[in-house]
Amino acid sequence: MGPEDQANELPQVLVLGPPPVFPYLESQFPNRFHFLKPWLSNLPLTQFLISYAQSATALLIRGGGTVQLTSAILDCLPSLQLVVTASVGVDHLDLPELRRRGLAIAYAGNVFSEDVADMAIGLLIDVIRKVSAGDRFVRQGLRSTKGDFPLGLKLSSKRIGIVGLGQIGSEVAKRLEGFGCKISYYSRIKKSMAPYSYYSNVYELAANCEVLIICCALTEETHHIINREVMVALGKDGVIVNIGRGAIINEKEMIRCLIEGEIGGAGLDVFENEPRIPEELFHLDNVVLTPHVAVGTYESRMELSKLMVENLETFFSNKSLVSPFVD
Ligand SMILES: O=CC(=O)O
């Protein structure tokens, strides 16, 4: 049997919008799966799928707003049974359609929660203590010419509102407890075990907090849940940190609120139309921007790669998925 025949014997896994761990995953597990890589082909995607992916039973996909798994793609994959996304967010998957087709779904589960929570705290401290702004001030040589740098705001004892108290939101809350912050949260359902004040309405949460940290998933229900009214309720010194998804905030309104001084600042890792980041934000000194990297640590990448392989292996040996996505 030649190498070509051996590859044909292996489980066929289609890779779409290759996840960042893909090269590692491919080099560590060379003879376990046969990966189909449409980006190496000159064919348009659907043509590639029709020509080469008819027996692909599993699909690895990148998350974070870069690829959408559409019905048109799914229509070209008659053997597909499993979708593994390298992300916690699943807003790039059409969940009802995947369910309707009876496909299993695995996702990144809890792999990134600590890193994303760390980043939320980093962004918050950066905005209110002006770390990046201070860095710019120093590098521009303004220390000797402009004198004193403006005062920041204190983190300890701040009233923080967490939007979405899932795994990431809970990690954020845990960290902020250490700073002596007063924590409240909004979620669809009150969490009976959570020792924080619950608001069933995000407007009320904003009106009673000085900081909002967006940790929920993007769904039809949470799309633009942070609108102008919510931001105005948060107040002129209020700060928003977003490590969820850009479209949870009405981005245009947020930019207006920042420019008009209706809110005090923002720390943003995610944006409404990634990879585009609105240029108006670049000119605001009270805004800290990062390029959707809250999940980006070496350790978590390695863990993610392991988890993705475990999901593929359990699936191909008819066992339960290690990190099934359940809504
Ligand atoms: O944004 C990143 C993710 O959803 O994992």
From TrEMBL:
One of its GO terms (molecular function) is hydroxypyruvate reductase [NAD(P)H] activity. One of its GO terms (biological process) is photorespiration. Its EC number is 1.1.1.79. Keywords: NAD, NADP, Oxidoreductase. Residues 44-321 form the D-isomer specific 2-hydroxyacid dehydrogenase catalytic domain. GO terms for cellular component: cytosol. Residues 121-294 form the D-isomer specific 2-hydroxyacid dehydrogenase NAD-binding domain. InterPro entries: D-isomer_2-hydroxyacid_DH, D-isomer_2_OHA_DH_cat_dom, D-isomer_DH_CS1, D-isomer_DH_NAD-bd, NAD(P)-bd_dom_sf. It comes from the Eukaryota. Belongs to the D-isomer specific 2-hydroxyacid dehydrogenase family. This is glyoxylate reductase (NADP(+)). It comes from Cucurbita argyrosperma subsp. sororia.
